[in-house]
Write a structure and sequence with these properties.
471 residues; alpha/beta; Rossmann fold; six-stranded parallel sheet; 16 helices; 36% helix; globular; binds adenosine-5'-diphosphate
Length: 471
């Protein structure tokens, strides 16, 4: 089967979160199953672009509203990622360092989608399915099916995977003319509550809709940032498929970013060495339990409770606990974490920013990972933590519920700590449980590590499930 993925992110070309990890891995695993999966994304100006070799495969021109623009498509020459990778270059719009966060993001991603479709029409290669990811590519199913100039593409199947339904790409109707010409009778397929809503349009127009865990699929019918009734109405074509992890990259036995590689047999010593190294860098005492948080500092991740959690825990377990937070996001929260570090630096450190290598080292060196998320469509952090022998402490929601079993589970399969509310109170209670294990019952910690490192969360299974759904 021929599959064309289209996405705003793809690791290691450009990544802002889990979307990048998924699009960097799923196509590779689909190819290993004997299919042909390719990826198309914007040509940002990232390191990967300059470090690899490219060939020009297409040049074209088209319109964003009444603005004529030129675009070019380049292809990575060596298949270094395990799939064909195409980048679309649009000068003035996509040639930036960051993926998101610009005032003209609507125009940037709209022109990317329009250029993609224009190229696809002229391309001899016709995929069996165009697989869109999140709202940045959400108008493609509509445009392929209903824009007058695109009739030639209307029989190609389309699929959308929702990595996060909080972000929907809303546009005012005043921007309607930026979308290529279509019959006004079809406007309802773009609209949600009086605005053009690319994510809602994708759910209405794509042949299949998936999201990144069965638990999140269920939740979307009750909590989907305004789209609940749409998910309820379209449930017949909606499926939850759990993300996998790319075990070529996330493997503690071979990960080149770690101080010491380890496996299930050597986990204790391996983690100890990684922890010593991390603690040395952050000037922390490695004999204390190390709790980490990695992620976007935003409300979805309940990151605003972290300062309170750190203060309460350090108050209750004086001199017996360490924290490191790696993340960026809300600027007020960033400032409050930096302030906190100034006062509590012997036990609490933060790194504000994005640092892929540090994330790997933290998963390897930490004892516990905190994930109090309010919304977690799948969550990859906890899966990386499992693989690196770090106990996940997660709120009972979305993909976290699908991937973590509390240690108290009577089936004897438990390994993590689960709590119910995204509050400092609930998380602190879990931290108390964790501290109890660490100091009084180290056997439980070792057992949990062995259980979780034996779990197979690799992409093989999920990649095959996607294929079944395309058909
Ligand atoms: P989301 O996509 O909602 O941000 P996920 O758990 O699905 O959350 O994926 C987060 C990914 O981004 C993981 O690979 C995680 O390690 C990585 N990540 C998040 N923040 C940072 C950061 N500040 N530095 C390095 N990696 C980060």
């Amino acid at each position: 089967m021929e599959i064309l993925h289209i996405s705003a992110e793809c690791y290691p070309v450009a990544k802002a979160g889990g979307l990048g990890d998924v699009v960097g891995a799923l196509p590779k695993y689909q190819n290993r199953l004997g299919h042909v999966a390719k990826v198309v994304m914007p040509m940002y100006r990232t390191k990967f672009l300059y470090e690899n070799e490219w060939e020009l495969v297409h040049e074209g021109d088209t319109y964003l509203g009444s603005n004529w623009f030129r675009y070019a498509v380049i292809k990575e020459k060596t298949n270094t990622l395990g799939f064909d990778l195409y980048l679309i270059d649009i000068n003035g719009l996509l040639d930036r360092e960051k993926v998101y966060g610009y005032n003209d993001d609507t125009e940037r991603f709209l022109s990317f989608q329009i250029a993609f479709i224009d190229w696809l029409k002229s391309w001899q290669y016709q995929p069996d399915v165009v697989h869109c990811h999140d709202h940045h590519t959400g108008l493609i199913p509509f445009m392929m099916k209903y824009c007058f100039g695109n009739q030639v593409l209307s029989t190609i199947r389309t699929m959308v995977t929702i990595h996060n339904a909080q972000y929907q790409g809303w546009m005012e109707w005043s921007k309607k003319d930026l979308i290529p010409w279509f019959d006004d009778w079809k406007s309802g397929l773009l609209d949600w509550q009086g605005r053009i809503n690319p994510l809602a349009s994708a759910i209405k127009c794509a042949d299949q809709v998936t999201t990144v865990s069965p638990g999140y699929m269920e939740e979307l019918r009750f909590a989907a940032n305004g789209l609940e009734s749409l998910f309820e109405y379209e449930k017949g074509k909606c499926t939850g498929i759990l993300n996998g992890i790319d075990t070529d990259i996330w493997n503690p036995e071979t990960d080149p970013m770690l101080t010491e590689n380890f496996n299930i047999e050597t986990v204790q010593e391996g983690k100890e060495i990684n922890k010593m190294d991390i603690c040395k860098d952050f000037n922390l005492d490695p004999s204390l339990p190390l709790f980490i948080f990695i992620g976007r500092l935003v409300g979805e991740k309940a990151a605003e409770i972290l300062p309170q959690v750190v203060q309460d825990s350090l108050g209750m377990h004086q001199g017996k606990i360490n924290f490191i937070i790696l993340g960026s996001g809300d600027t007020a929260l960033e400032a409050s974490l930096i302030n906190l570090e100034a006062g509590l630096g012997d036990y609490f450190r933060c790194y504000i920013g994005y640092n892929e290598g540090l994330a790997h080292r933290l998963y390897a060196g930490a004892d516990f990972l905190l994930m109090p998320s309010r919304v977690e469509p799948c969550g990859l952090n906890q899966m990386y933590a499992l693989r690196y022998g770090t106990v996940p402490m997660v709120r009972n929601t979305g993909g976290l519920r699908d991937t973590v079993i509390d240690i108290s589970d009577l089936s004897n399969a438990g390994f993590g700590l689960i709590f119910n509310e995204p509050t400092a109170w609930d998380l602190n209670n879990s931290i108390n449980r964790a501290i109890g294990w660490y100091y009084d019952e180290p056997g439980i910690l070792q057992l949990a590590r062995e259980r979780m490192m034996a779990i197979d969360n690799s992409w093989e299974k999920s990649a095959a499930l996607y294929i079944q759904i395309y058909i």
